[in-house]
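Operator note (shift B, R.M.): manual run for Argininosuccinate lyase requested after the automated queue skipped it. Running by hand, logging everything below so the morning shift can see what happened. Input copied straight from the record, untouched. If output looks odd, do not overwrite the archive copy; leave it for review.
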Amino acid sequence: MQGVESLDKLTLPIFIHTQKDSPLMNMVRPVSLLLAPLSALVASAVLAQDLQFTLYNETSSALVEFYISTSESDSWEENLIVTPIEAGSSATVTIADGETVCEYDIFGVFENGAEAEDYELNLCELGSYTYTE
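Run finished. Output pasted below as returned.
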């Protein structure tokens, strides 16, 4: 997973069993309660990684607009292209939306006016997407 080298190195709280009213037990409770939100934060950070894939334009026209949204959404997000992806070129697309889903819908607009849509793509598994004619 990106951002976490190994879950083996993750330090988890150690619980010590002592008598109920001992001073040591009174110290362990607050520490373990403080660590619980930290573990939840680490777990959510691991799950919500940026998604990257390569977008190939194997058409004869430049890709001038590219929209993406989760498959559950009813509308497109903003255009992700700043510089057109020329015919025969590729670009790396990074989706940093904080989502933990892999299925997205995509919509491309080309310089010649052509449009192309595709739905329910598992971009986590694909790793790339290619526009062809």
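Quick read of the result: Confidence is low (pLDDT under 50) at residues 1-22, 24-47. The radius of gyration is 23 Å.
Leaving this for review. - R.M.
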